[in-house]
């Protein structure tokens, strides 16, 4: 991501988990965990959307941790359909931010895992902000967002997403009356629109 990125590994349920940590601009407000898209389709912590989300958090005063799901890069283990991946994220949170301000963000499959983590943690931990981009609704059973977190949640989707149709995300969001911010003409990877995505996330984090 930049020359200051700190790369290391953390012991996880299936072995080592590769992490990349970037520090906030100025005094840190806490730690944000950003989860990447589907590992069987090329998703890694270096995905451009994932990096964009991390930059938005860094600019807004949050340290960030991007990490590789099991079986990707230097992370041990093999793909587990979401079950093990959720345990990886929960393990990282317990290890790296057991207390203090916490944000969660994810893209595509990573948004699915982030939603699951939010559902697991919300009664135990205060989640300052939640950002879900290109949420893989329809492909996976994405957990509903707790009502108490709706005001802290940003859901962004591309109008022209041909990987996860906008209709699938609306079908997930509608029963919750959870707002979805739609980027006109946006595809799944937001080609040419990453600066806009970053600005939208920064705006949400400053609200």
Compact overview of the structure:
This protein has helices at 48-59, 83-96, 109-121, 166-173, 194-206, and strands at residues 6-12, 15-22, 31-35, 63-67, 102-107, 127-133, 153-158, 181-183. By secondary structure, the chain is α/β, with parallel strands linked by helices.
Account of the 3D structure:
- The model has no long low-confidence stretch (mean pLDDT 97).
- Strands 1-2-4-3-5-6-7-8 form an 8-stranded mixed beta sheet, sandwiched between helices.
- It is built from 5 helices and 8 strands.
- Helix 4 links the parallel strand 7 and strand 8 (181-183).
- It has helices at residues 48-59, 83-96, 109-121, 166-173, 194-206; strands at 6-12, 15-22, 31-35, 63-67, 102-107, 127-133, 153-158, 181-183.
- Helix 1 packs parallel to helix 5 and helix 2 (83-96) packs across helix 3 (109-121).
- The radius of gyration is 15 Å and the shape is globular.
- The two termini are 26 Å apart.
- It has one domain: Rossmann fold (3-Layer(aba) Sandwich).
- It is α/β, with parallel strands linked by helices and 207 residues long.
């Amino acid at each position: 991501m930049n020359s200051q990125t700190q790369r290391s590994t953390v012991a996880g349920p299936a072995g080592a988990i590769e992490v990349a940590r970037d520090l906030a601009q100025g005094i840190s407000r806490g730690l944000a965990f950003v989860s990447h898209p589907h590992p069987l389709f090329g998703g890694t912590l270096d995905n451009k959307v994932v990096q964009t989300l991390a930059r938005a958090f860094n600019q807004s005063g949050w340290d960030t941790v991007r990490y590789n799901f099991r079986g990707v890069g230097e992370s041990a283990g093999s793909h587990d359909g979401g079950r093990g991946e959720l345990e990886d994220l929960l393990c990282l949170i317990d290890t790296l931010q057991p207390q203090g301000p916490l944000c969660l963000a994810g893209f595509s499959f990573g948004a699915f895992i982030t939603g699951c983590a939010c559902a697991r943690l919300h009664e135990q931990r205060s989640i300052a902000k939640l950002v879900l981009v290109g949420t893989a609704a329809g492909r996976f059973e994405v957990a509903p967002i707790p009502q108490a977190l709706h005001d802290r949640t940003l859901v962004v989707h591309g109008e022209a997403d041909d990987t996860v149709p906008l209709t699938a995300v609306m079908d997930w969001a509608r029963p919750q009356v959870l707002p979805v911010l739609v980027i006109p003409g946006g595809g799944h990877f937001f080609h040419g629109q990453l600066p806009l995505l970053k600005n939208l996330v920064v705006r949400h984090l400053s609200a």
